[in-house]
Amino acid sequence: MNRIVTLGVVVSAACALALPASAQDLRISNVTVVSPERMSPLPDVDVTIHDGRIVTIEKTLRAMRDIQTVDGKGLYLTPGLIDSHVHLSGIAGMDDAQEAKHPDIVKAMQAQKPLSFLLYGFTTLIDLISTPEEMARWKAQALVPDTYFCGGAPLMDGYPMYVIPKPERYAAAPYMLIEPGATPPAGIDPAQHTPAAVVARMKKDGALCVKTFYEPGFGPVKNLPVPKLETIRDLVTAAHANGMPVLLHANGIEGQTFGLAAGVDIMAHGIWNGTRNLPLSAQDAAIPKILDQVVARGVGWQATIQVLYGERDLFHPDYLSDPELARAVPASLLAWYRTPEGQWFRDQLAAEVPKGNAPEATQSVVDKLYADPIGRVTHAAAYLAAHGGNLLFGTDTPSAPTYANPPGLNGWREIQNLAAAGVTPAQIFQAATLANAKALKLERDIGTVEIGKRANLLLLRADPTKTIEAYREIVKIILGGRALDPAALAANRGR
């Protein structure tokens, strides 16, 4: 059989030439491939997709008939972006009662949410606290990014379970951990809530990973129960035996020190909190030591800087006037956010803020309150970037019931946050593609532009390893071989 060599990969010529035309057959011609496993861009190639996967990457040798072709001349083809920290249930900025009260608004946002992620280039999402039932509802929509989930393993009555009234909270946390000696809730067998038992259940349910928590409290909430070190070590052992990475909610010195001792794989936040046990001068010295261990062990690290802006920006009176929001959020929901009812979470946070004499004064106080944690996590991200840390791109969208973490757009803002911290465009690109894929054991399917990989791709006007502005002008989003026009995905399409 005649064979052709295409960029170091041997492909059957008969197979390459005999691709049947179908809805998923696509060719991007004369494009420059930018992929994180390559040292440099690959110019002037044709990339052919069949049944949702890349089948050839080659110099243009021949014309192909009966196949949809996108002209890539002067453009850049890259892997689609991976957001490895999202939460897909519910409507950001609404509580359960408000969702029940406004079904039409909820329906509009539920339909738009997956499109908004795609609009900003996110073709793969990892929901860090979900269940098979929630995933089935999400994936039942007509067009959604490829989505995987982690099972959330909170300590009984700890974070984030504590926000749900008893006894409903126990039904809402099927993978909760009950430590030896704790009194289990009525009707619940503690043997089904050991680290080994919950991991086995997650694995059976199709979870990709395990998410657990170290959160002693914040704001007015203090002294939440946290797990014992041996509990999380056992959880890590059970997860690794099942081929599942473990992520830890840990946003401060104390939590990340705990996570390193427990052997978790990924810190699901950056460091923005200090610790009550150390003076400020000692905290400043402690953070680089923690980060040095993160680097030495190759632990994944999600900065999630946008979490803090998602709270701070609620106090900026012009936030909801940002025209970019109209692309990500339906007009009906934006209008509701502007109502007194839609401001409930802002009002809740405002109760903890020293009162100013005017809205501008309150905003100034809030900006100062958030300046320290934003500065701390920004400097930590810069330190890891400068020292070869395993940065992973994640946003925690939405991190709380805040409307200032909109789907998709929140990711673009996190890209800007990382760039402002000094993380290079190439490092951001790596973190949002191959580094995320490797950390979550998905690199055989996604994260690069290679033959055999799933065709989740972006067509851009600029090289994203050189400038983050490349993500401002996405020409096409390609999901499983299907080419999507950004204009057709925007919430204000047709307006």
Secondary-structure content class: alpha/beta
Give the amount of beta strand, in percent. 15-25%
CATH class descriptor name of the largest domain: Alpha Beta
Number of strands: 18
CATH fold label of the largest domain: TIM Barrel
Task: Supply Rg.
Answer: 23 Å
Low-confidence stretches: 1-23
**Average pLDDT for all residues:** 91
How is the main sheet built?
8 strands, mixed
From the coordinates shown, what is the CATH architecture of the largest domain? Alpha-Beta Barrel
Through-space gap between termini = 55 Å
Q: In one word, what is the shape? A: globular
Helix content: 25-40%
The number of helices is: 17
How many distinct domains? 2
Name the CATH homologous superfamily of the largest domain: Metal-dependent hydrolases
Topology at a glance:
Elements: E1 3-6, E2 9-12, H1 13-17, E3 26-33, E4 42-50, E5 53-59, E6 68-71, E7 76-79, E8 81-86, H2 96-101, H3 103-119, E9 122-127, H4 132-139, E10 146-153, H5 168-171, H6 195-205, E11 209-213, H7 229-241, E12 246-249, H8 253-262, E13 266-267, H9 280-297, E14 300-302, H10 306-312, H11 325-328, H12 331-337, H13 344-350, H14 359-386, E15 390-392, H15 409-421, H16 425-431, H17 434-439, E16 457-460, E17 474-479, E18 482-484
Parallel strand pairs: 3-6, 3-7, 8-9, 9-10, 10-11, 11-12, 12-13, 13-14, 14-15
Antiparallel strand pairs: 1-2, 3-4, 4-5, 7-16, 16-17, 17-18
Structural notes for this entry:
By secondary structure, the protein is an alpha/beta fold. The protein has two domains: 3-80 and 448-488, Urease, subunit C, domain 1 (Roll); 81-314 and 346-439, Metal-dependent hydrolases (TIM Barrel, Alpha-Beta Barrel), CATH 3.20.20.140. The protein has helices at residues 13-17, 96-101, 103-119, 132-139, 168-171, 195-205, 229-241, 253-262, 280-297, 306-312, 325-328, 331-337, 344-350, 359-386, 409-421, 425-431, 434-439; strands at 3-6, 9-12, 26-33, 42-50, 53-59, 68-71, 76-79, 81-86, 122-127, 146-153, 209-213, 246-249, 266-267, 300-302, 390-392, 457-460, 474-479, 482-484. The strands form three sheets. Strands 3, 4, 5, 6, 7, 16, 17 and 18 form an eight-stranded mixed sheet that branches. An eight-stranded parallel sheet has the order 8-9-10-11-12-13-14-15. Strand 1 and strand 2 (9-12) form a beta hairpin. Helix 7 (229-241) packs across helix 8, helix 8 (253-262) runs parallel beside helix 9 and helix 14 (359-386) crosses helix 15. The longest helix has 28 residues, at 359-386. The protein is globular and about 70 Å long. It starts with a strand and ends in an 11-residue tail after the last strand. Residues 1-23 have low confidence and may be disordered.
